[in-house]
Amino acid sequence: MAEALANYLPHSLEWLAYVVVGLVQCALLLLVPFVGAMFFVWVERKVSARIQDRLGPTRCGGRFGWLQLLADGLKLITKEDLRPKDADAVLFLLAPYISFCASFMALLALPFSNGWVVQNMNVGLFFILAVLGLEVFGVILAGYASASKWSLFGAMREAAQVVSYEVPLGMCVVVPVVITGTMNLVDIGNMQAGLFTNWLIFHDPFTFVTFWVYFTCATASVNRAPFDLAEAESELVAGFHTEYSGFRWLAFFMAEYGSMFIVSGLGAILFFGGWNGPIPIAHWLGLTVENGPVLGFIGNLLGCFNFIFKCVAGVTFMIWVRWTLPRLRIDQVMQVCLKYCVPIAAVMFLGATTWTYLLPGGVGLRSMPYGMRYDTTNVSAAFQPAAVVPPAPAAPVQVNQKLPQASPPKIAQADVPGPGRN
Amino acid sequence: MDAINWHTFFFLLFALVACAFAVGVVLATNIVRMALYLIVSLGATSGLFFLAGADFVAAMQLMIYVGGTLVLLIFGVMLTAKGPFISMKTGGGDWILACLLSGCLAAFLLPAAFAVPGWRNVRHAADTAAVNAAQPEIAEAADASNATAEANSAVATNAPVQTRTATPLGMGLLGPRVDTLDPDDASLVAGMSGYLLPFEIISMHLLVVLVGAAYLARTKRRADSRNPGARNA
């Protein structure tokens, strides 16, 4: 996108294109934690009220209390920013932003539609998992720096919980990677195009179970009830954010809702077809990238709505779970992880691998372009970009050419202007 | 005005952050702040890997090193926290020893880094190669050396290098080195070479050691503690 914009600018202003595109992308992504958190808070209030046979907010704004979300935000921003006297000032002030940045960074690699991703990384899935794991740093630092025993208890619980649940979470996430043969989230999403039977959750029985284990572990890793021990309000006041108020508290809050959105989105891409609807209506209408940029844009926009709908459904499911199940004790949390999630995930991983190996097409006998097609006699065949995937991934140049003589000539072609030489 | 060379800009940024916070780790006295500085330093190193186009290694850096610091942090807090915010002072002897060791390491690493012939004065060539590998069509356009191609290549210089390093790495683990060796070589069949088997053996050993350590470290339960009445029988 930056390259396209740079072509319209005078030569001396090309750097501006990158800055503008970067700012626009950041602003669009910031909508997720900002607007998303406001919206989800309202949803949570309404859903919890319905579950408890109440009405929820009704006063601000019409019948559904939709102005309540603005009122909440305004209240939080105008609150006084308090800091305990004994707190470690730097860490205390920094901690909420670390959580927020981790959550925001994960959004950089999350595709919202076919190719609508800030960084289309080859290892996007791995990157998101790695970055989401950093969110717990903010929590631990907040708990430690607050100089309050409630905060420290909450932080330590969170640390133990997140470190444990990363293991089954990783195992569950590997299952779609084994089936599709790629960690590129755009490719994984595109491979599930077509009818909803192509979604990986319906690929085989093992992936079906894997999704539920994934969702359990994801709920635990984003610290939501019934795994919200770190902020158990009936035991620890408010856990790690006991001492926080105002905007810093809001940053923790947005990080939490942002992470909920991200793990729901990851689940949607890995198991529920991402931006592909249950019925490929956009494809039938010809709204694809091949039919021109405008039709492709409309199709992608519909896909984006699809994806966001799936994410919102996932978050709503988490809210539903929160207001239905009681909180687990710490030993029960560990038990669920080590005695149930890890063995089930391991068995499902084994089963899905065997299934993919014996029956590559899954239930629908559909061939996955990449999956389990390791050919020992012709290595470079495994690197051919599959024709099935609409956006053919960038061809690995150094593989397709004959290698021994490929590398030196590339360096020798020095007539292309290098950086700073034009 | 030349187009800003974003690669150099971000390289300097990440390198500066990594070095500055590494010094911060040494100078800090609070263990949690040390851990925070270490995280920032390691994160900047991961940014350097991303900049070099090694996205898998960069994500690994985030996952293993930065994530590993998390465990370090937890144990640091749990094992040292007698009071709220203790500060640790390093003795003079420790300083001298540490400076000696790290000086030796630097004296060993710096000449080694500068001795690599490919890294000397070939920045332009290397960048060109990276751009060529990433975007062959733009490089071809630049070869035509008309005005449009000039503009295109200037854009290409700043474009992110799209890399697919994960698959060659995995292949290398299995045996076939797609980057250097002839893939048709019969001795490079999967299972005949590569590091997958040693890697798996080491992993299993580590797992067994972990389980054994956990078993030895847990508090011993008396054999009759579950059924006190049995003592009298």
Summarize the structure.
The complex is a heterodimer of chains A (422) and B (233). Chain A has 15 helices and no strands.
Q: What are the segments of chain A in which pLDDT stays under 50 over at least 5 consecutive residues? A: 369-422
Which term fits the overall shape of chain A?
globular
- Rg of chain B over CA atoms, rounded to whole Å, is 26 Å
State Rg of chain A.
24 Å
Total domains of chain A, how many?
A: 1
User: Helices and strands of chain B, in N-to-C order?
Assistant: HHHHHHHHH
CATH superfamily label of the largest domain in chain B: NADH-ubiquinone/plastoquinone oxidoreductase chain 6, subunit NuoJ
Helix-residue proportion of chain A: 55-70%
Main beta-sheet annotation of chain A: none
- Could you say how many structural domains of chain B there are in total? 4
How is this structure best described in words?
The complex is a heterodimer of chains A (422) and B (233). Chain A is an all-alpha fold and 422 residues long. Chain A has one domain (83-379). Chain A is 59% helix and 0% strand. In chain A, α6 runs antiparallel to α7 and α7 packs antiparallel against α9. The longest helix of chain A is centred in the first third of the chain and has 38 residues, at 14-51. In chain A, 46% of the residues are buried. Chain B is mostly helical and 233 residues long. Chain B is globular and about 55 Å long. At the A-B interface, α1, α2, α4, α5 and α6 of A face α1, α2, α3, α5 and α6 of B.
Key words describing this protein structure:
heterodimer; A: 422 residues; mainly alpha; 59% helix; globular; disordered C terminus; B: 233 residues; Four Helix Bundle (Hemerythrin (Met), subunit A); 4 domains; 9 helices
Write the layout of secondary structure elements.
The complex is a heterodimer of chains A (422) and B (233).
Chain A: H1 2-8, H2 14-51, H3 68-78, H4 89-108, H5 124-132, H6 135-145, H7 149-180, H8 185-191, H9 205-221, H10 246-271, H11 281-284, H12 293-322, H13 330-358, H14 397-400, H15 407-412
Chain B: H1 6-27, H2 31-51, H3 55-80, H4 92-115, H5 123-134, H6 136-143, H7 147-158, H8 166-174, H9 196-217
